Structures are given as C-alpha cells and as structure tokens.
Amino acid sequence: LINQFLSLFESQLKISGGSMDKFTGQAAIALFTDNKSQNSMLTMASQLRKELSKLNLKHHEEKLPILNVGMGIATGAVVLGPVGSQKRKDYTAIGATVNMAARLHSLGVKNSDITIHLDRPTREGFLSTADYQIQELSEVDIKGYSKKQVVYEVL
Predict the structure, then answer these.
(1) SS3 assignment, position 31
(2) How distant, in Å, are the alpha carbons of 30, 90, 91, 94, 96 from that of 85?
(3) Do 103 and 144 form a contact (C-beta atoms < 8 A)?
(4) Rounded to whole angstroms, how far apart are CA atoms 103 and 98?
C-alpha cells in the first residue's frame, strides 16, 4: 500500500519538475527550487490527490485499505546539502521550512481524506490560483511555534 503511494508520488514529482529528497516512514519529501515553485508544488499535489482518489476508489471496490494522505507545502529558506556524521551523511534539506511542511502534512493525516495544506508564504507566493479554491483556516497551533500560524487548505 505504501509503495503504491510512493510510486504515485514519484511519478507526479517527475512530471512537476521537483526532486526527491527522501522517503521517511509514511512520508515522502520533495524539493522545488525554481522561481515558479509554488505553482509547481500545488499542481503536483492536486494531481497526486486526483490519482490517490482513483486508487482509493479501486481499493474500496476491492475491499482494501483506503489511503488518507496529508500534504504539507511550505515555502522558505532551507539548509541543503550533506548532513550527518563523519561515518554517515545524507544529502537532505533541513530547517524551519522543512519542519513547517512536516507539521502541515500531519494536519492532514489526522483527517479521513486526502488534504493539501499551505503555509502563508506559499499562499502569498502563488503566481496564479484561478484553478484552485483555497480556504484560509483559523489560526492553528503548530508544534515548534510559539504563536498560532495562519494555514490554508486547498479544497
């Protein structure tokens, strides 16, 4: 089941021009670095949601488990490069932006649906949102932040 999700994720990521950072348990982390990243991320997440909905329909018909997936999209600076000890290093991204994306992801995992949550810099950075309905949620307590954060959900 998880491999089906990760395969869908990777295929949509390739189409959208992102790069794979890593698979972590029940998550996959992608990076977008071009100047149109917000639109690329949203396009990828929306297409992935469509593909996952189709997969869930098939699973429902075959009486298999349904995937509930939360996607978190955050925009900002990261530290990108080899991170680790002298014996073991991974090329990865770390920082507050990565942490925010993980927290937004976890908001969706709690739901029985496939959700896409955005942070404020991502929402404000979109070049075009005409194709999407984006709703501002009430301010949310996000682990690691002293103040409540404005979060958006793509409907």
Answers:
(1) strand
(2) 23, 9, 12, 15, 21
(3) yes
(4) 9
Per-residue pLDDT at 33: 80
Mean pLDDT, range 116-134, rounded to an integer: 82
- Residue 6 pLDDT: 85
Q: Which of 77, 78, 56 is closest to 5 using CA atoms?
A: 56
Termini Cα distance of the chain: 25
| CB-based contact 64:70 (threshold 8 Å) | no
Tokens 């958006």 belong to 152
- The pLDDT tens digits for 4-57 are 888 888 888 888 888 888 887 777 888 888 766 667 888 889 999 999 999 999
Question: Angle at Cα 80 formed by Cα 141 and Cα 92, nearest 5°?
Answer: 80
Query: Which of 13, 19, 11, 16 is CA-nearest to residue 93?
Result: 19
| Length in residues, the chain | 155
- Distance, CA of 80 to CA of 94 (rounded, Å): 7
Q: Spell out the residues 6+ positions from residue 4 whose beta carbon is closer than 8 angstroms to its own.
A: 55, 67
- Between vectors from CA 90 to CA 84 and to CA 95, what angle results, nearest 5°? 75
Confidence band, pLDDT 50/70/90 cuts, at residue 66: confident
